[in-house]
Amino acid sequence: MGKPRVLLFVAILLLLFLHKPLLRNYFILEQRELIIDYSRIHQLNPALVSAMVFVESGFNPEAESHKGAVGLMQVMPATGQWVAQQLVWRDFTVTDLKDPAKNLRIGIWYLAYLKRNFRQNDNLALASYNAGSSYVSSWIERGVWNGDMVKVEQIPFPETKKYLIKVAVLKKVYRYLYPELDS
Description:
It is a single chain. The protein has helices spanning 3-16, 20-26, 32-41, 46-57, 77-86, 100-117, 122-131, 133-141, 158-177. The protein is mostly helical. The chain has a single domain (3-181), classed as Lysozyme. The protein starts with a helix and ends in a 6-residue tail after the last helix. The mean pLDDT is 93. This is Soluble lytic murein transglycosylase. Residues 34-142 form the Transglycosylase SLT domain.
């Protein structure tokens, strides 16, 4: 997303901020309690997770990507199986990823795992969630990107750049619309 498009997106959001009820109709927060509870258990910001869910699936628990990602947090089936093993979740099946509570449990655990692996940096964890850990590790090792949003344009994957910008903006939106996410 070029700078003019980002600025336009931010300007539209700022205009909409003047009408909070309208914004709440668009920026929904379904599964609020689960997001807050699981985020806090794993020491993640609930507004960040809410923004991420909005970007990933628009809060559609039935969402499926063309790459095979499933549910609210668009968890890949192999990732879901791996996380389930880490959680000693013996009866996990891929269809569990369409269950909001189970998808959030897996997705939030995985994001927290990535954050631990990437120096507690939200941006590196989000980039890893979107692009894959091996790519993000490679960018760090080669000095391509260090997780600083000021240098987000250095990320070689356009989709990941857009993803990080959207989540960052929407995190602010969710914090504004739903102050309980920060309490």
